[in-house]
Amino acid sequence: MTTRPSEQVAGAGDPAPVVAKVVSEVAEVEVAPDQSFFDLGLDSIQLMDICNRLNETYGEVIDLFLLFENPTVTECAAIIREHQAAG
């Protein structure tokens, strides 16, 4: 049985692999850490799906506008790390 990111414990380890898994599931392709989600051809509906999945896992961390401004696994993981450090 495969564990979905939302079933993992938030705050347990580096969020980058979880973000990469979520984006890969939505995009249906493997994604490099610094590859732009826009280069993958993701649309706003798919980006909202990514936001929802990440927020389900980590709490209300990322909104759609932050995702548009930080459209890579590396950038999203940094936002989550900052949120974890502050909270």
Automatic annotation (TrEMBL):
This protein's record includes keyword Phosphoprotein: yes
Keyword Phosphoprotein applies: yes
Keyword tags: Phosphopantetheine, Phosphoprotein
InterPro entries: ACP-like_sf, PKS_PP-bd, PP-bd_ACP, Ppantetheine_attach_site
Start and end residues of each Carrier domain: 10-84
Superkingdom of source: Bacteria
Pfam entry (one): PP-binding
Official protein name in the record: Acyl carrier protein
Organism: Amycolatopsis albidoflavus
